Structures are given as C-alpha cells and as structure tokens.
Amino acid sequence: MKPMSEKGLRVAGLRCSVAGTEILKGIDLTVEPGSVHALMGPNGSGKSTLAFSLTGHPQYEVTGKVFLDGEDLLALAPDKRARAGLFLSFQYPAAIPGVKVANFLHAARQAVRPGDLAPAKFRALLLEKMDQLGIDPSFMGRYLNDGFSGGEKKRLEMLQMAVLAPKYAVLDETDSGLDVDALKDVGASIGALRAGEEGGETGFLIITHYPRILQYVVPDVVHVMIDGRIVKTGGAGLAHEIEREGYDKIREESAAVA
Amino acid sequence: MPSAALAPSAQGLYERLASFDPALGGLAERSSALDRFFALSSGRERPGRYWRVDFESILPEAAALTTDGALAVTSGGDGRAIVCDLPTAAREHPNLLARALGKTNVPSTKFGALATAFLQVGTFVYVPADRAVDEPIVIAYDAPAGAAICPYTVVLAERGSRATIVERLTAQTGSLVVAAAEIVLGESASIEYAAIQTAGEGARVLSSRSALPGRDAGISLYSAELGGAIAAGDLYVRFEYPGAQARVGAVFFPTGTQHVDVVSTVDHQAADASSETLVKSAAREHGQARFLGNIRIAPHAQGSDARLRDDALLLSPDAHVDSVPALEIGANDVKAYHGATVGALDEEQIFYMQTRGIERDAAERTIALGFFEPAVEHFPTKALRDEIRATIAAKLQ
C-alpha cells in the first residue's frame, strides 16, 4: 500500500460501531483522483455506514485511518471534511424548510471555496448546472428538499455535487429512485467531474446495490461488501457477474475463505 | 365606581381618565372600560410550572400614562385612503370612526379594555369602497423610556377595498405599551394587517388585535413579538358573515429572560368561512413562551374550513415553550385540522449542512432562521420581512 500522504482517498483498517454494534469490520480501499470505484453489496452489508463514517456522522464511532490527499479526515468535523474536498450524496437527504435551494447552494459554495465566484457568476454556474441536470430553475426558490419527490432529491444532490466540484465524492444509492433519463444526466455529470472539467479530477466511490448506474458510469474498480467487509475486488466485469448471478456465489466463496 | 378597596395606583388611573380627549370617550365610558379591565381575566391567570409572569397584575403607573411622547408616525397609502390620528378622526370623520371603533371584541378583552379607557393615541385608516391602496400604510408607535402608552389603531375597509397596513411598535427602557387594533371589513374587502414589536429592554407590551370580516372578505392578521421583557398578545378573528377567509400568523422568539404569551382565536360564527393559523416560535437561553390557539366553530357554521399549525423550537436547555391548541367544533359538516410540534434542532439537518462545508454554528442558525420562514414569508412588505429576519438572526447570535 502506498503511504497515506499520497493523493487519493485512502481508507485503512476502518472500523465503525453504531450503538455498540460493530458494522464495519476493517475496510481498506483507495480511490485515486479521477477514478471511479463502485461499492456493491446486499442490503445491510454496511455500505451506507461506510459513507457516514467517511463524512463524520456524529452517531458513528469510527477507528482506523482515512486520509484525503494526505489530510487526516477522522480528526476533522464534518464541515472541515467537506472543505477538505469530500462530498456525500445522501441516500435520504434531509429536508430543511425555510432554507431556499439557491441560498443554501451559495452558502455551501462559499464555505467550500470562499470568495471564488462573484454572485452573478455563481448564479450563471447554478443555472448551467441545473440545465444539465434537467432541474427547473424554479427549484432555486424552493425550500431545500422540502416536499421534493425521491427523484427530485437525488437530482438536487447531483446539483450540489456539480456546484461544489469536490475532490472525492461518495454517492450513496444515488441511482435508486431515478429514471433512465435522470441516470444518463447523472452519468454525464459524474463524467464531467471525473475528467477534470471543473478543474480537478474527482474520484468517486459509488455505492449501489444494482449495477444499473454502472451502464452510465463505467467503474475502474468494483468492490463487493458483505457483512462489514470488502470480500471481493475486481474490474468492471465483476459488476456484470453480480448482475447475472447475484451475491449468493460471492457470499459462499467468502464464507469458504473465512 | 372605584371602590375604596382599590390600591392607590388603581385609584390614580381613574383620576387620570378625565385628562383624555372627551371626543374619543366620555368619563362614564372610560370609567366603565377601566372597570372591565379590572374585572376581566386575560386568560393567562394560571401560571404553569414554567410560567412565572402574572399578566393580571400588570398595571400602568398613572403618572406614566402619556399621550404627547407617543407619536404615531404614519406613511404610505398614496393618498388613496384616509389616514389620520384618532382625535382628528373623532372630529372630522365621527360617523366613519363609529362604524369600526368598539365594533370588535377588543373593548371586552382585558388589555383592550385598558386601551379603551385611555383611548387617544392612535390612528384611523379608512379605505373607501372598491379602492385598492397599493402602497402599504405604515404606522409607528414609540413609548418613551418609563412611559405608558395605549396606541389604538382602527381600520374601516369598505366593500371591495384593499390595503396593507403595518403597525410598528417600539418601546424604550422600562416602558409599558398596551396596544389595540380593530379592523372592520366590508363585503369582499381585503386587508393585510401586520404588527411587529421590537420593544427595548425591560419594556412590557400587551396587545389585543381583532378583525371582523364581512361577507367574502379576506383578512390577514399577523404579529411578530420580538422585543421587550414581557409580551402578551391576543389575535382574534370573528366570522359573522359567510364566505370570508382569514389567515392568522404569529412569530415570537423569547431569548435572555423574555416571556412571550400569544393567544390566537378564530371564531367561526358563519358558514363557509375558512381560516388558516400558522405560528412559529422559538425560545433560547431562559426565554419562555406560551401559545394558545383557539378554533371555535359554532353549530350553525357549516362548511367551515379551519386549519391551525404551530411549531416551536427549543434552542437551549432552560428555554421553554408551551403550545396548546384548543378546538371547539359544534358543526358536523366542517374541515378542521390542527398540528403542533415542540422540539430541538434536528441533528440530521445539522449534519447534512455540515457535509456541505457549513460550520455547525452557522448551520444551526440557518436552520433556526429557516424554521420561522414559512410564517415570516406571509408577512406583508419586503421591508417588514427583512426586519423580522434580521431581528431573529440577531437573537440567534
């Protein structure tokens, strides 16, 4: 393994407990800039727990090491992790009544990249990204996720990601609740960030239980998580194998190894 | 009729009545109003575990009662409405004034009775039939330090008229304000009336504001209780004609050692009227608040549609909000809804904002400010909304 100081989102020996129960039992993985890692696994395997452990959810007790381009993330509060360049697309984003989408996005951009865009330029950027993601401009005046459909929430998560252009993004089941057109838009958005069109080459950890989204974003690496451990890692072909055969075979293999 | 049993300060109040403008009320009327003040309860006579303020005992010092320091400054209206002070209205438009003054329940409420006894400082707004007044009318009352004032606003909106009125109350250190407003609307008239009080330290602000909409009329009655040491306000809408609509809104936010007590009442006495009451409150530090939301639907008020929603946010361990919805529904063909929540800031919301780079303190302030927004956004005029937001934001610092 390369030193933790090198570029990449580097996770080593990550363990996580929630209310005394260990969910993650030692995770090691490294997402390089511009690479796409898919994290697959059945329900309850700990995928979302990994997403919350990386971003610093207050209810998660986490040990191990997580470095983002050499910066020790576990020592930081969630907002500082975001300012270091980490983004999480939530599976269930919180609704915040009374806080308008445009104001929230501006506050977030200001927090992550202070003073880099004049208000007029920010607005232009926002409108451009909304157009690319098929989000009606009227959303700017709506309250954050308040009364949004599942698909609208996911599109708004992608809008936030596009506006914040993070160094590393964790997408937690972003594909669930999206139709094919939306998936294509999400795929294009990820492709643009990955290729460095926003200035840096974003690395992705895409959590999903279905390989569907991977038709639109071809992963470099696929990990399979079962029962809090990554039990198999491979190339894009592994996703197709799971699509054909489900998780049972991998589960049996990993049980045999253990 | 002051009895010998009255304390000297109460006796002094009766003695002061004669010094107020007789054109706005004779001695007998004023004396009878003061009797009512002493006889009535404000409905707040039962201090709870957290409730230590005895509103019944709040009494102006007779010597502090003033009329000349309490200027009513008015602006707006664009010359399309009559806007004048009450003594002028009593002399120049007595018949119009008489159609609204004393026509709501204000004189029969405890605080309204006190304002009636000392009626003089105030404003009369008259909107002629079918007249739309686009420019909001802004009325400002200020109580000088240590003074007691009873500012009284009377609105008569004729058939088909429309206007927006903002009442701004300020009060200097140690003053007492007893404010009243009566709003009488003709058929299909539409009035937005919003009051904001940002009284200073140690000030006490009592109020009674009441609207009587005509057939198919629309009234919006809002209040923002943001200042003072003690504030107690009554908001009241009574439907006596069918087809009318009311929107009642209140925001309040006691911080430090402030106490705020708001009672809203929508009284459906006529068929096919609809009302929506929306209250957002928060308390911080040792701030204490109570909201009592009454909805009454009389047996003959079929087709009524009444909604009541109040949410309270507790921002400190020692802050407290009591929220009491009370529905009395006498008719069977009605829609009535009420919902109430009391709670702390949501950790999931805070975490979500933090994952977008926003610091925890800023996230908490943003969420708390946003919490008020569904009520604040209904207040008329951008200037007023921005003032409310800025005042709340300052109280969150």
Topology summary:
The complex is a heterodimer of chains A (258) and B (397).
Chain A: E1 9-18, E2 21-31, E3 36-40, H1 47-55, E4 60-68, E5 71-72, H2 78-84, E6 86-89, E7 96-100, H3 101-112, H4 119-132, E8 143-144, H5 150-164, E9 168-172, H6 180-194, E10 203-208, E11 221-226, E12 229-234, H7 236-245, H8 248-257
Parallel strand pairs in A: 3-10, 3-11, 6-9, 9-10
Antiparallel strand pairs in A: 1-2, 1-4, 4-5, 7-8, 11-12
Helix pairs in contact in A: 5-6
Chain B: H1 8-16, H2 27-39, E1 72-75, E2 82-85, H3 86-92, H4 94-98, H5 110-117, E3 122-127, E4 137-143, E5 148-149, E6 152-157, E7 162-171, E8 176-185, E9 190-197, E10 204-212, E11 218-225, E12 230-239, E13 245-252, E14 259-268, E15 274-283, E16 288-297, E17 305-314, E18 320-329, E19 335-343, H6 347-354, H7 360-376, H8 382-396
Structure notes:
The complex is a heterodimer of chains A (258) and B (397). Chain A is of the alpha/beta class. Chain A has helices at 47-55, 78-84, 101-112, 119-132, 150-164, 180-194, 236-245, 248-257; strands at residues 9-18, 21-31, 36-40, 60-68, 71-72, 86-89, 96-100, 143-144, 168-172, 203-208, 221-226, 229-234. Chain A has a domain at 9-93 and 165-257: 3-Layer(aba) Sandwich (Rossmann fold), CATH 3.40.50.300. In chain A, a hairpin with a 2-residue loop joins strand 4 and strand 5 (71-72). Chain A is globular, with a radius of gyration of 18 Å. In chain B, 21% of the residues lie in helices and 38% in strands. Chain B contains eight helices and 19 strands. Chain B has helices at 8-16, 27-39, 86-92, 94-98, 110-117, 347-354, 360-376, 382-396, and strands at 72-75, 82-85, 122-127, 137-143, 148-149, 152-157, 162-171, 176-185, 190-197, 204-212, 218-225, 230-239, 245-252, 259-268, 274-283, 288-297, 305-314, 320-329, 335-343. In chain B, the strands form two sheets. In chain B, strands 2, 3, 5, 6, 8, 10, 12, 14, 16 and 18 form a ten-stranded mixed beta sheet that branches. In chain B, strands 1-4-7-9-11-13-15-17-19 form a nine-stranded mixed beta sheet, covered by helices on one side. The radius of gyration of chain B is 21 Å and the shape is globular. Chain B starts with 7 loop residues before the first helix and ends with a helix. Chains A and B meet through helix 2, strand 7 and helix 3 of A and helix 6 and helix 7 of B.
